[in-house]
Amino acid sequence: MKEREYQICNRCIMDTSDPEIVFDQEGNCNHCNEAIERANGLWFPNKEGEQKLVAIAEKIKKTQKNKEYDCIIGLSGGVDSSYLAYRVVQLGLRPLVVHIDCGWNSELAVKNVENIVKKLGLDLHTHVVDWQEMKDLQLAYFKANVANQDVPQDHAIFSALYGYAVKNNIEYVFSGGNFATESILPKSWGYNALDYKSLKSIHKTFGAKKLKKYPYVTFFRRYVYFPFIRKMKIVKALNMMPYNKDKAIEMMKKELDWQYYGGKHHESRFTKFFQAYYLPHKFGYDKRRAHISSMIVSKQITREEALEEMKQEVYPDNSHIEDMEYVAKKLGVSFEEFQKIIDMPNKTYRDYPNNEGLFQFGFKIRDKFFS
Ligand SMILES: [Zn+2]
User: Fold this and answer.
1) What is residue 190's predicted lDDT score, i.e. its pLDDT?
2) How far is the CA of 271 from the centre of ligand 1 (A)?
3) Domain 38-369 CATH (choose: 1.10.150.650, 3.40.50.300, 3.20.20.30, 3.40.50.620)
């Protein structure tokens, strides 16, 4: 890759690889400025957070006591969801744990899931997404040449998890989503994984099979049925405690026989290939930058350490080829064919029918009346 000639933020390490970034007079960017502003009111890594969390847990115990489970957790085996499961049990809650297998899990992640449920004595449901359909959908996404190749898995994980919640009459969803490691993600780098119209239209254009078993969620189901008819609530518990990633990892290694796989979201070879090769190579940005910038904002890492970490190449000396071969083979295409697909001109989700307008309208209503 050529030398970066990008302008970079003075406080975090976001730069003009996000074409929409804006800098203020001090040279700080809109991402860290907005994150710091948002932190008030949603991030409590202190006593106040502990008190809030205990109060929520007590309320849940009281109101859910006649049910088999107090809440539901999606467990991937990664740092966030594993630590969340541990803390939820510490709070005295009885969670149903659901692991969604989209076909890419590493043995290490699966082992982590097994160890956690065994050590914590939890009930586990594993949902295996139909691989033939998953494969067809993922290949369709590559052929669509869009950036957001994580959508087929993210959509299925969300939909399957909420499906289990409804089936088991569970009101509370504990989410591993958190401010400490995820406060920054530029709009231009991602698109809403829950836009089923977008997913359907991409699959209709490039897919070959019918999706019959693939778990999906419509706009109505997500934004009307779940919150207003089923009265489901999302609890982002990691925002109500001092969540430090390194400390969480150390603790889990000791207490849960948990093992680290290195790198955010590198628990699967697909995600590693997608984030460390596909996006930087084809779209010119590295999602690590946003993740590490989030950790600067939450003071888990200094800017100097962050810049040092960015220098480390995830795939030195073309070592991405091995993972690329693996991904191609799993998707049922030859390496050459896969290379050809990836080398086609870039597109965005906007090139295909989607529900962006509806989502924007919905978010406006939510922000106006429900926040
Ligand atoms: Zn910044």
Assistant:
1) 86
2) 25
3) 3.40.50.620
CA of 11 to the centre of ligand 1 (A): 5
For residue 33, the CA-to-ligand 1 centroid distance in Å is 7
| Cα 84 to ligand 1 centroid, rounded to whole Å | 28
Say what percent of the chain tops pLDDT 90.
87
Distance 190 CA to ligand 1 centre (A): 18
**Ligand 1 centroid – CA 178 distance (Å):** 18
Looking at the predicted structure, is the pLDDT value of residue 105 above 80?
yes
Domain boundaries, the chain: 38-369
User: Which H helix or E strand runs over 205?
Assistant: helix 196-206
* Cα 294 to middle of ligand 1, angstroms: 9
Residue type, 139: L
What contacts 194, CB < 8 A, 6 or more positions away? 155, 158, 217, 219, 222
Q: List, for residues 306-321, the tens digit of each pLDDT value.
A: 999 999 888 988 889 9
- Is the separation of the CB atoms in 17 and 23 below 8 Å? no
**Two structure tokens written together for 23:** 């800098």
